[in-house]
User: Which sequence fits this backbone?
């Protein structure tokens, strides 16, 4: 226990905050690269054609033998596409998959930006400030939106795509909803605790 408590000091906390701030930027850059790849048609999905099934097909190829394939991006969801009568994937499906990637990636990218602001402030020794409370609140709310609402948005996108496409797309999503909801609520509660502590300290300062 004493060994663990030694880690809870200002020097280690600021160093960890600076490191995590850099990690947040790497995560944001990685997410944006994944989004670009998705727009380029390099998002993988399970494809069913008249000639067979392909577990990791992408829109940007005609031959789905991916032995020599370059960079691709894989979704956490299971995406299934049935080819049209010509064994092709319609453009509407590609647009639908790209929109699903937008709703998967952009909210989390923004959330990590707010989290990086918290780590930046902590690295400067700015702990109990109103900005940190707001940033943690924004992070928690965005994560809650991504966990609870985005799966329904993705299913709605599939529905709209199938209305205008000869190909058919379906998705299995929301399996990790509970695992993402609980941390998002925890961040919202942490934001409230910091906000309450700041107001309490202000009252004490004014009383003195």
Assistant:
């Amino acid at each position: 226990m004493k060994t663990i408590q030694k880690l809870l000091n200002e020097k280690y906390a600021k160093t960890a905050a600076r490191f995590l701030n850099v990690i947040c930027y790497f995560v944001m850059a990685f997410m944006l690269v994944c989004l670009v790849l998705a727009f380029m048609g390099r998002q993988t999905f399970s494809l069913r054609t008249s000639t067979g099934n392909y577990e990791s097909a992408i829109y940007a190829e005609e031959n789905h033998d991916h032995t020599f394939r370059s960079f691709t991006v894989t979704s956490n969801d299971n995406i299934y596409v049935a080819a049209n009568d010509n064994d092709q994937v319609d453009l509407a499906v590609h647009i639908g998959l790209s929109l699903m990637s937008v709703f998967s990636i952009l909210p989390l990218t923004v959330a990590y930006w707010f989290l990086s602001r918290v780590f930046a402030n902590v690295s400067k020794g700015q702990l109990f400030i109103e900005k940190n409370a707001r940033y943690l609140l924004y992070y928690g709310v965005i994560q809650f939106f991504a966990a609870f609402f985005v799966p329904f948005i993705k299913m709605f996108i599939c529905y709209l795509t199938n209305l205008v496409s000869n190909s058919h797309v379906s998705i299995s999503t929301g399996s990790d909803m509970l695992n993402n909801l609980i941390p998002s609520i925890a961040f919202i509660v942490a934001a409230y605790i910091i906000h309450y502590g700041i107001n309490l300290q202000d009252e004490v300062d004014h009383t003195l």
